[in-house]
TrEMBL record:
PANTHER family: FUCOSE-1-PHOSPHATE GUANYLYLTRANSFERASE. GO terms for molecular function: fucose-1-phosphate guanylyltransferase activity; nucleotide binding. Residues 93-523 form the GDP-fucose pyrophosphorylase domain. This is Fucose-1-phosphate guanylyltransferase. It holds the Pfam family Fucose_pyrophosphorylase. GO terms for biological process: GDP-L-fucose salvage; L-fucose metabolic process.
Length: 590
C-alpha cells in the first residue's frame, strides 16, 4: 500500500518538525495524559516523561500528565477514563472546557509483554528514528493531524495499538460532531469477534472513498459471527481496486469477501465528557471494572438496547456492582450519537503480546514496510542475518562484531559481547551478556532494583511459550505450571528449591511464574544475566544449579523494587556510546 506508506511517512516528518519546539496555539494537543495502574507506575512514567522533555524528544508547551488509578479494586480502562476526567478538572478548572485532550490508557503490568512491564507499554521502543521512537512518540505522530480539526474534548486510545490510515489529498479526519466519534477499519469477520463492530445506518447516496462519515445505529462488543449477520453489521467488499481492506492483524481480504468495520480509538466532545464526569462524582469510588469500549460505546446509537448490560462473558471478574453500574451508564448515555469515521484505506495493529512484538519487528510484515521499521535501529551492530521468514532486529544496543543474533529475534537496550550467540525467536531486553549461547525461544529482561537502599540487578528469564498469567491455587497444583516447557516442580528440584508458600510473593491463592521467587539478585547486570541463563541451561540439560545460595525475587517483586532512574541512566550510557560511535564513523567518512 504505497499511499498508506506515504501518508505515514508524512505524519512522521510533521511530528519530527515539532519535537523539541514550542507548539503554536491549536496546532497540537493542549493536554497529553497517560493512565497508570498505581502510584509506583505513575512515578516511573513521570520520570520517563521528564527525561524525554529534558532531551527535547517531545513537542514543548504541552501539558503532559500521568493519572494513576486509585488503590483497591481494578476499575478497567472505563474506570480510568472517569478518574482521568476528574484529574483534568481538578488540574485545569474551567479551562478544560476548551481543551483538546489525548488520553492514552497505559495502566497494567504487561504480563503478555514483560519487557514492557517495568517501564510501561507506552514506552515500548520501536526500531525507528534517531533517537529511538517509543510508542508514545509514534502515537503523537500518527495523530498529528487530529488537534487542528477537532473541537474541545477527549480522544481515548490504548498504548499498545497502532492505527495507520490514508485519506485523499484534500481530505482530513474531523472530530467536530456532538456526542462520540470513533474510527472504523475494514476487517475480516474473525477479527471482528475480538473487537468492537459498528452497525452502520445504510446510506445509498454515499460516495464511497478512503474516508466516509457515517452514523452508527448500534455498536457490538466482541460479537459472534452469527450476531454480526443478525444485526446487519456485515458488508460485501466493494471494488476498491487492489488495496487490502484488512485490519493489520489479519490476512488480506480477497475481493467480493465479507467484512465488518471494527473499532480502535474514539473521541467524546466536552459535553459528553462532562456528563460522564458528573456521573462519576455522583457515584463515588468505583468497585468494579468498566470497559471504555464495551460499556460506553454499546450504550450509544439509536439501536442500543440494555441487553449487553447482562452479558458478562468478556468480564475478567464479575463484581456485584457491575450489572448495576452498566445499567446506570446505559441510561446516562442512551440517545447520545455515535459518529463513525470510516477509513477504508487503513490498518490496525496490536503489539501487546510477545508473539505480536516478534512478528511485526522481525518478519516481513506489512507494518514493517508501512512504518519504515529498521533491522538495525540506532545501534552499533554488525549486519544481521536474513532468511525467508524474516530478520533479526537490534534496537538501541551495542552488539560486538563477534556476536551472532539469529533471524526472528529482537535485542533492545542491551550490550552483547563477542562469542555471544542468540538463538531464533528470542527477546533480549536491557541485558549485558558475555560469551554464552542463548537458546532459541528464550525471553531475557534485566532490571535494576533497589533493596534496602542497595542497588542490585535481577534478570527474568523464561520460554517464549510460557504463560506467566497461568495460576494455580495450591502448592499441590504447581506441577501444572511450566517453565520453558518443563514441569515447574522438576525445575525446583534442579534448582534445589522447596515448594513452600515462601517460594511465592503476593496472594497465596494465586501461584504463578509471575509470583515465583526464582530469579537471582546480583551486584552487576552481567552477573545477573549469567546467573539467570545458568538456571535456564540447568533446566534444559537436567543438571543441578543451586539457587538456594542466592537472594531471589519474583517478577512481581522486581517491579516493586525497580530503580527507574538507574535503568534510564544505563540506557543513557548506551545512547552516548552509540552517538559517539556514529560521530566517529561520520568523521571517518568525511
Amino acid at each position: 500500500m504505497a499511499s498508506l506508506r506515504e501518508a505515514t511517512l508524512r505524519k512522521l516528518r510533521k511530528f519530527s518538525e515539532l519535537r523539541g519546539k514550542p507548539v503554536a496555539a491549536g496546532e497540537f494537543w493542549d493536554v497529553v495524559a497517560i493512565t497508570a495502574a498505581d502510584e509506583k507506575q505513575e512515578l516511573a512514567y513521570k520520570q520517563q516523561l521528564s527525561e524525554k522533555l529534558k532531551k527535547r524528544e517531545l513537542p514543548l508547551g504541552v501539558q503532559y500528565h500521568v493519572f494513576p488509578d486509585p488503590a483497591g479494586t481494578k476499575i478497567g480502562n472505563g474506570g480510568s477514563t472517569l478518574c482521568s476526567l476528574e484529574y483534568l478538572e481538578s488540574l485545569c478548572g474551567d479551562k478544560w472546557n476548551s481543551m483538546k485532550v489525548l488520553l492514552i490508557h497505559s495502566g497494567g503490568y504487561s504480563q503478555r509483554l514483560p519487557n514492557a512491564s517495568a517501564l510501561g507499554k507506552i514506552f515500548t521502543a520501536l526500531p525507528l528514528g534517531e533517537p529511538i521512537y517509543q510508542m508514545l512518540e509514534l502515537k503523537l505522530a500518527m495523530y498529528v493531524d487530529f488537534p487542528s480539526n477537532m473541537r474541545p474534548g477527549v480522544l481515548v486510545t490504548c498504548a499498545d495499538d497502532i492505527e495507520l490510515y490514508s485519506v485523499g489529498d484534500c481530505e482530513y479526519i474531523a472530530f467536530d460532531q456532538p456526542g462520540f466519534t470513533a474510527l472504523a477499519h475494514p476487517s475480516s469477520l474473525a477479527v471482528g469477534t475480538t473487537h468492537g463492530v459498528f452497525v452502520l445506518h445504510s446510506d445509498s447516496s454515499l460516495q464511497h472513498g478512503d474516508l466516509e462519515y457515517r452514523q452508527c445505529y448500534r455498536f457490538l462488543h466482541k460479537p459472534t459471527i452469527e450476531n454480526m449477520h443478525r444485526f446487519n453489521a456485515v458488508h460485501r467488499q466493494r471494488s476498491f481496486g487492489q488495496q487490502d481492506l484488512s485490519g493489520g492483524d489479519t490476512d488480506c481480504l480477497p475481493l467480493h469477501t465479507e467484512y465488518v468495520y471494527t473499532d480502535s480509538l474514539f473521541y467524546m466532545d466536552h459535553k459528553s465528557a462532562k456528563k460522564l464526569l458528573d456521573f462519576y462524582k455522583s457515584e463515588g469510588p468505583l468497585n468494579c471494572e468498566i470497559d471504555a469500549y464495551g460499556d460506553f460505546l454499546q450504550a450509544l446509537g439509536p439501536g442500543a438496547t440494555a441487553e449487553y448490560t447482562r452479558n458478562t462473558s468478556h468480564v475478567t471478574k464479575e463484581e456485584s456492582q457491575l450489572l448495576d453500574m452498566r445499567q446506570k451508564i446505559f441510561h446516562l448515555l442512551k440517545g447520545t450519537p455515535l459518529n463513525v469515521v470510516v477509513l477504508n484505506n487503513s490498518r490496525f495493529y496490536h503489539i501487546g503480546t510477545l508473539q505480536e512484538y516478534l512478528l511485526h519487528f522481525t518478519s516481513d510484515s506489512a507494518l514493517k514496510s508501512e512504518l519504515g521499521l529498521q533491522s538495525i535501529a540506532f545501534s552499533v551492530s554488525p549486519s544481521v542475518p536474513e532468511c525467508s521468514s524474516g530478520t533479526a532486529c537490534v534496537i538501541h544496543s551495542i552488539v560486538d562484531s563477534g556476536c551472532c543474533v539469529a533471524p526472528g529475534s529482537v535485542v533492545e537496550y542491551s550490550r552483547l559481547g563477542p562469542e555471544v550467540s542468540i538463538g531464533e525467536n528470542c527477546i533480549i531486553s536491557s541485558s549485558v551478556i558475555a560469551k554464552t549461547v542463548v537458546p532459541a525461544y528464550s525471553f531475557l529482561c534485566s532490571l535494576s532494583v533497589k533493596i534496602n537502599g542497595h542497588l542490585k540487578y535481577s534478570t527474568m528469564v523464561f520460554g517464549m511459550q510460557d504463560n506467566l498469567k497461568n495460576s494455580v491455587k495450591t502448592l499441590e497444583d504447581i506441577k501444572a505450571l511450566q517453565f520453558f516447557g518443563v514441569c515447574f516442580l522438576s525445575c525446583l528440584d534442579i534448582w534445589n528449591l522447596k515448594a513452600t508458600e515462601k517460594l511465592f510473593s503476593g496472594n497465596k491463592m494465586n501461584l504463578s511464574l509471575w509470583t515465583a521467587r526464582i530469579f537471582p539478585v546480583c551486584s552487576s547486570l552481567s552477573e545477573s544475566a549469567t546467573a539467570s541463563l545458568g538456571m535456564l541451561s540447568a533446566v534444559r540439560n537436567h543438571s543441578p544449579f543451586n539457587l538456594s545460595d542466592f537472594n531471589l525475587l519474583s517478577i512481581q517483586e522486581m517491579l516493586v523494587y525497580k530503580d527507574v532512574q538507574d535503568m534510564l541512566a544505563y540506557r543513557e550510557h548506551i545512547f552516548l556510546e552509540i552517538s559517539s560511535n556514529k560521530n566517529q564513523s561520520d568523521l571517518e567518512k568525511s
